[in-house]
Design brief:
By secondary structure, the chain is α+β, with helices and mostly antiparallel strands. Helix content is about 20%, strand content about 25%. Helix 1 packs antiparallel against helix 2. Belongs to the universal ribosomal protein uL16 family.
């Protein structure tokens, strides 16, 4: 299991912020691999969801292919314990999330063929909280 939270931060707890809307300005093209999983809808993705998708992909590509994770959960989400009254400060950090805009590449895979990439996408699309599609790297011959 990989560590899916920042090693050090300026502050431990943050404000909730906004729900992502609009189209991703950066990170919308496949750069490292041959195929990518692209988010069609905006969503909030937590570290457990990223880890479960990573496990499924690694099980399918084995040692032949390579996986690139293009998102990192760097926003802490706090929660107060069960049966605790309101007040007395903000709760402890419960889990970590990342905000995904529409059109963002989440994962990239290389050294595999299209059929295997399509199979992997069909397996992981129900594990993600948004609609996604398989995206292929654009090759420029100029």
């Amino acid at each position: 299991m990989i560590k899916l939270f920042p090693s050090n931060m300026k502050f431990r707890k943050y404000h909730k912020g906004y729900y992502p809307k609009g189209i991703s300005k950066r990170g919308s093209a496949v750069n490292f691999g041959k195929y990518g999983i692209k988010a069609i809808d905006p969503a909030i993705l937590n570290s457990d969801q990223i880890e479960s998708v990573r496990r499924v992909i690694m099980k399918k590509i084995k040692k032949i292919g390579r996986l690139y994770i293009r998102v990192f959960p760097d926003i802490p989400v706090t929660k107060k314990p069960i049966e605790v009254r309101m007040g007395k400060g903000k709760g402890n950090v419960e889990y970590w999330v990342t905000k995904i805009e529409k059109g963002r590449i989440l994962f990239e895979m290389s050294d595999i063929d299209y059929n295997k990439a399509k199979l992997i996408h069909d397996l992981i699309k129900h594990k993600l909280p948004m609609k996604s599609k398989l995206s292929e790297k654009l090759v420029n011959f100029n």
